[in-house]
């Protein structure tokens, strides 16, 4: 086994490119800002380069030379000799020079001096506390059952400082947890990165934005940057120096006495908790004390000399550029809202209903936001179905100021409003919705508005009413802006929202902080750092979300389908692997198997052609972008309440926003390439399963994949996020008993050829996902109209001439027309049965039609 291979197997971090290693570590120097325009750009890579490797090598060399000079005992010499015998196997991944501490077995982490990766033994007795700490200071990379991997990054340390952790505390706790002394390179990195963090704040006062700091030299340094300087608003009356802009802010509140409604603390209001730290473990020993002091809420560190705060104003429109630039210069701006001392904006009289009790992880996430008595802006990451909505509502009830909620679709808008009414005592008059259909305002001085991103961000073709509503939204200060599903919103749209709406604090909610376009870092400066990220497996173990068994079912392609697959071009290829008869059969078998167990099943297909074909063939109802609202509701109601409807087919319109706690099994027959986020969101549909707390209950997630096709590659890619959350995908290559299924579809060659002909005759666009994607994007735009649906292309309407010579089974062309809509069929079945005479006549009509067609072709 080569050294590299061994390192891979041990899950060691991969080596960074040598070129980067050799770069000199650079510091910000004043002259860099002065006059050279190129300096602005040049600064970033120099400041941002983490040169762990160079430092590490230097340290190792120093260590070796000092040992040689000082001389060693024969035992040490023997050990070194032993080390050298194996060192070559690991080459530059040999970290044996980081000597293990004598009690290393009871310490759960190891830190790579190379690149800041942290490996945690999740089976250690103190793993839970260690996890809390690691989530606060680093990014979780992968968290399967026994070994977790985290990574220290600039962003994660920024987040750590924002929730109040101190540099030396971070180093000390790492040292306590680590099996080896924390490498100097890591200590240096933490010190260096956190040095400047937390020094600058962005504050909204009297509808104007200020960059604020109690360190005037920092503001002076920032003003040397061209972007920031250009964004500064120099008032004509008085702005001679930064100091001239000094103003006094209200004294910070007494720290730590904030009670978040719905928490245990709120219930025990009377027995006051010192430091007000929700969920803090009782201090038992020294380690626990240390955790208590650094993990979770801390209280005193952000106390500032408020009388000595310096600030300069920046223009609203450039806020985003300034934030970005400050991030790049390693002075990320903290955004905190001292809502209890805000006497300018009217209070909103809302509270959680007395019966509402928030769960421990919801409480923990909120404690990160409100830890120092103010509202920190940032992002909370909770698994799908874990109750992000209630976290947002509790935050709004804590801040008690006007609140704007933005979500991705008008369905979500209605759900948010309904949830606000369900969990809090907000009245109908206090909460308004702003969508294409409804433009309401709340009564009184303060209230809640729920809308979609695109309603707020789109500037084109606004109706008069929309314009007036936008004026209402932009002319006032909002105490709080809640951003749902932050990871899906296009960056440009986000930017417009964040710059046009003036809000004191922002909370982003998401389940999957992954984006295929790698734009996730943008969220850091647009909203704020990640405040909390829950562990999916932990929540499943505690029954807050369901346990899920994941499986990938490999369906071999029939020879005919595979031949066409190899011959066809990309778009049709996709249709061929979706419509593979073996996949059809596997789907039919799994539906039957799970229906017999009493499960409720959702079958997902991104491809509308396949969706309709499967649903019709198997006689199940379906919903896609083109299904009208009334029919959607009808199908969903059947699924929820009718024991005869246990399976529905959904296109990507069901990925999010559909709350069906009845569903216990998912089958995915076609998916959109390699989207990790979509896979996780789909899984989320069954994580909220009603029956999740039944003993031994498991939900099931099957991904059907046509063997030896591109689909296998995409499938592996899609699963990566869930694997990193600790889910294990089993591979099923054979479904026992499938052949014996009575009325198995596409059993004969003739039927399979009939199917292939329909696929080959299908329009190229049927293979596209475009039509349905448009429906969801339309939703994101908040303006899905019947016009949109009218423009969509759906299968069955058009057929182009196919390569008939290639089709040995052209006589079966009538396939598509024979299958009536399964939805209509179900409605018919529900209606009183028809007289025999009519059904007879219909049959006759159908066979006459068929005959006419066959003779026409002949
Ligand atoms: N503290 C709580 N007590 C009782 N029920 C809760 C609590 N928190 C959440 N729930 C319930 O859990 C379910 C899922 O909540 P919610 O829809 O907010 O999840 P989500 O995290 O937004 O999921 P997704 O990302 O899939 O939209 C809802 O039915 C909600 O009522």
From TrEMBL:
Q: Name one Pfam family in it.
A: ERCC3_RAD25_C
Question: Can you tell me where the transmembrane regions are?
Answer: none
This protein's superkingdom?
A: Eukaryota
Which Enzyme Commission number(s) are on file for it? 5.6.2.4
Any GO MF annotation of the entry: DNA binding
Ranges for the Helicase C-terminal domain? 585-739
Which residue intervals are annotated with compositional bias (Low complexity) in the record?
A: 275-286
Q: What class of enzyme is it?
A: isomerase
Which ranges of the sequence are coiled-coil? none
Q: Which family does it belong to?
A: Belongs to the helicase family. RAD25/XPB subfamily.
Q: What protein does this entry describe?
A: DNA 3'-5' helicase
| Organism field | Serpula lacrymans var. lacrymans (strain S7.3)
């Amino acid at each position: 086994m080569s050294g590299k291979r061994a390192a891979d197997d041990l899950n060691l971090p991969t080596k960074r490119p040598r070129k980067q290693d050799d770069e000199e570590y650079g510091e910000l120097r004043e002259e860099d800002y002065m006059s050279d325009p190129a300096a602005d750009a040049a600064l970033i890579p120099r400041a941002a380069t983490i040169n762990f490797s160079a430092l590490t090598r230097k340290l190792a060399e120093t260590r070796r030379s000092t040992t040689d000079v000082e001389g060693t005992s024969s035992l040490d010499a023997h050990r070194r000799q032993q080390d050298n015998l194996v060192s070559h196997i690991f080459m530059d991944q040999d970290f044996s020079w980081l000597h293990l501490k004598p009690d290393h077995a009871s310490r759960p982490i190891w830190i790579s001096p190379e690149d800041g990766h942290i490996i945690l033994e999740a089976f250690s007795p103190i793993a839970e506390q260690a996890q809390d700490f690691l989530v606060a200071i680093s990014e979780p990379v992968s968290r399967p059952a026994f070994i977790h991997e985290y990574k220290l990054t600039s962003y994660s340390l920024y987040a750590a400082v924002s929730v109040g952790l101190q540099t030396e505390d971070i180093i000390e706790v790492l040292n306590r947890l680590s099996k080896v002394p924390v490498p100097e390179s890591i200590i240096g990195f933490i010190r260096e990165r956190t040095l400047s963090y937390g020094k600058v704040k962005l504050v909204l006062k009297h509808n104007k934005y200020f960059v604020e700091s109690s360190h005037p030299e920092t503001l002076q340094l920032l003003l040397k940057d061209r972007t920031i300087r250009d964004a500064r608003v120099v008032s004509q009356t008085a702005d001679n120096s930064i100091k001239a802009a000094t103003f006094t802010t209200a004294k910070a509140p007494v720290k730590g006495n904030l009670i978040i409604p719905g928490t245990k603390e709120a219930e025990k209001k009377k027995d006051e908790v010192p430091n007000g730290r929700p969920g803090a473990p009782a201090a038992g020993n020294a380690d626990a004390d240390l955790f208590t002091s650094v993990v979770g809420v801390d209280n005193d560190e952000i106390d500032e000399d408020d009388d000595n705060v310096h600030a300069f104003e920046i223009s609203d429109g450039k806020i985003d550029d300034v934030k970005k630039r400050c991030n790049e210069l390693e002075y990320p701006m903290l955004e905190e809202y001292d809502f209890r001392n805000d006497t300018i904006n009217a209070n909103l009289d809302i509270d959680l209903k007395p019966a509402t009790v928030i769960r421990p992880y919801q409480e923990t996430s909120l404690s990160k936001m409100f830890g120092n008595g103010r509202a920190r802006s940032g992002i909370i990451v909770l698994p799908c179905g874990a109750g992000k909505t209630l976290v947002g509502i509790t935050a709004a009830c804590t801040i008690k100021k006007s609140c704007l909620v933005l979500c991705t679709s008008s369905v979500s808008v209605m759900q948010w409003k309904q949830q606000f009414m369900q969990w809090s005592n907000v009245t109908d008059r206090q909460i308004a919705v702003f969508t294409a259909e409804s433009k309401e305002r709340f009564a009184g001085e303060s209230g809640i508005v729920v809308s979609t991103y695109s309603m707020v961000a789109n500037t084109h073709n606004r109706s008069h009413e929309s314009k007036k509503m936008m004026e209402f939204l932009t002319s006032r200060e909002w105490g709080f802006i809640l951003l749902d599903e932050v990871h899906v919103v296009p960056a440009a749209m986000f930017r417009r929202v964040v710059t046009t709406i003036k809000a004191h604090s922002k909370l982003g909610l998401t389940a999957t902080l992954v984006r295929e376009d790698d734009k996730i870092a943008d969220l850091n400066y647009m909203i704020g750092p990640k405040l909390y990220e829950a562990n999916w497996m932990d929540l499943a173990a505690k029954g807050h979300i369901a346990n899920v068994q994941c499986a990938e079912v490999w369906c071999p392609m029939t020879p005919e389908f595979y031949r066409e697959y190899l011959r066809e071009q990309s778009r049709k290829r996709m249709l061929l692997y979706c419509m593979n008869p073996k996949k059809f059969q596997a789907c039919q078998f799994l539906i039957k198997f799970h229906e017999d167990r009493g499960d409720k099943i959702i079958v997902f297909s991104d491809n509308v052609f396949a969706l309709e074909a499967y649903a019709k063939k198997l006689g199940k109802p379906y919903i896609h972008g083109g299904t009208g609202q009334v029919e959607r509701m009808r199908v969903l109601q059947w699924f929820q309440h009718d024991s005869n409807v246990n399976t529905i087919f959904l296109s990507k319109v069901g990925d999010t926003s559909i709350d069906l706690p009845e569903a216990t099994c998912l089958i995915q027959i076609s998916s959109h390439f390699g989207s990790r986020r979509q896979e996780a969101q789909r899984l989320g549909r069954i994580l909220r399963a009603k029956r999740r707390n039944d003993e031994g209950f498991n939900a099931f997630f099957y991904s059907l994949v046509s063997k030896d096709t591109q689909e296998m590659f995409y499938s592996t890619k899609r699963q990566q996020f869930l694997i990193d959350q600790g889910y294990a995908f089993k591979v099923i290559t054979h479904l026992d008993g499938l052949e014996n299924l009575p009325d198995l579809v596409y059993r004969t060659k003739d039927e399979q050829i009939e199917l292939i002909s329909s696929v080959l005759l299908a329009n190229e666009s049927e293979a596209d996902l475009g039509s349905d994607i448009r429906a969801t994007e339309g939703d994101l735009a908040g303006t899905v109209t019947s016009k949109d649906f009218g423009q969509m292309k759906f299968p069955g309407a058009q057929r182009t001439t196919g390569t008939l010579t290639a089709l040995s089974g052209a006589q079966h062309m009538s396939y598509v027309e024979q299958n009536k809509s399964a939805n209509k069929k179900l409605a018919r079945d529900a209606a009183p049965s028809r007289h025999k005479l009519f059904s007879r006549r219909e049959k006759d009509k159908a066979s006459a039609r068929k005959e006419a067609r066959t003779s026409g072709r002949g």
